[in-house]
Amino acid sequence: MRAAIEAALSDGSWGRYHGPHCENLQARLAAYHGCKHVVLCASGTAAVELALRGLQVGDGNEVVMAGYDFKGNFQDVLVLGARPVLVDLDRDNCNIDASQVEAAIGPATRAIIVSHLHGGMVDMPAIMQIAQRTGVAVLEDACQVPGATVCGRIAGTWGDVGVLSFGGSKLLSAGRGGAFLTNNADVVQRARLYSHRGNEAYPLSELQAAVLLPQLDKLDVSNRRRTDNVAHLQATIGDRAGLRVFANALSDTSPGYYKLGFQYDGESFDGLSRDGFVAAIRAEGIAMDAGFRALHAIHSSRRYRKMGDLPIATDADQRVVVLHHPVLSGSAGDVDQIVVALDKVAQSATMIRERAAGN
């Protein structure tokens, strides 16, 4: 990556409006994903908005999505004048439950947003069957899982549009940036009509593209390393109570593991709160955080429609914790340190809880 930056600085391509690096990245991403069109942009959030515009989502439409998702996706729907329709989650991996999607589709539904989160992968064959029956478009958010596979197919290539993020902590990172993938030229044209205003309003720079290209070369190898380390971690954790790893029932499926999700049970840690647990694990040098907030927990009910009480999404709001990918990219010894930290926190849970309570 250093060589790519130095070369871009040396030949002056880093500062061009239109240079070789963005064109090369578009071609490489298209070939990697087997798609016709790649539109680069300033962020994954911008890519979701542009993709939705390309799918003709607008005033009065509805977009079905999980009750637990990145809040930027929810806000992108609102920006377009549409309304999110929230459905509950798969109990095993806290991603959207495909079996509940069709009931949420109504006359105003224009699209379904499907996000693969925290090592959980959504049943895309089932989602696409629903989309074909109902005539609703699918936006597949693969921002956390570049290079991952779902039922033998690369994530982001199942839907009408796929979205990638190149944010500062992502598996492919340029500090900022994103892209959407599609085989539909009309989607691209609509997005470009919105984003081109004399020049590109939401650009990815030539220097960012130059940095991403060598990372793309290593993506498959890096994903395999993380997958092996997650398998080692699961085998080492075994049946320890209190943390249940997100599980996938789909065959021929391999997550990219930007984050590894767990469902946390405080009772197994002597009543230690999730925030207390996360603080204790981070104090041991392990990059673990609470998950997202459930969308219905942080937005006014006037902004969305929801299918029932969303009990699993509500539970995820309180119980999900996520392990960040750098430790999963290391050695087996690095992974073993996670288990050491977990055991230490478990043994000290009562003391940690009492200190937090001021006792």
Structural key phrases:
alpha/beta; Aspartate Aminotransferase, domain 2; 14 helices; 14 strands; 359 residues; globular; Aspartate Aminotransferase, domain 1; eight-stranded mixed beta sheet
User: Which series of helices and strands comes N to C?
Assistant: HHEHEHEHEHEEEEEHHEEHEHEHEHHH
Basic shape = globular
Number of domains: 2
CA gyration radius, whole angstroms: 21 Å
What is the CATH first-level class name of the largest domain?
Answer: Alpha Beta
Overall pLDDT score: 95
Estimate the strand proportion. Answer: 15-25%
The CA-CA distance between the termini, in Å, is 51 Å
Low-confidence stretches at least 5 residues in length (pLDDT < 50)?
none
Number of helices, counting only DSSP H or I runs of 4 residues or more: 14
Largest sheet: 8 strands, mixed
CATH superfamily of the largest domain: Type I PLP-dependent aspartate aminotransferase-like (Major domain)
Strand order of the largest sheet: 1-9-8-5-4-2-3-13
Q: Helical proportion? A: 40-55%
Examine the secondary-structure arrangement and name the CATH architecture of the largest domain: 3-Layer(aba) Sandwich
User: Helix/strand-derived class?
Assistant: alpha/beta
CATH topology of the largest domain: Aspartate Aminotransferase, domain 2
Strand tally = 14
Topology diagram in text:
Layout: H1 2-11, H2 20-33, E1 37-41, H3 44-54, E2 62-66, H4 71-79, E3 83-87, H5 101-104, E4 109-115, H6 124-134, E5 137-141, E6 149-150, E7 153-154, E8 161-165, E9 178-182, H7 185-195, H8 206-237, E10 243-245, E11 259-264, H9 274-283, E12 288-290, H10 295-298, E13 305-306, H11 311-319, E14 320-324, H12 325-328, H13 332-347, H14 349-356
Parallel strand pairs: 2-3, 2-4, 3-13, 4-5, 5-8
Antiparallel strand pairs: 1-9, 6-7, 8-9, 10-11, 11-14, 12-14
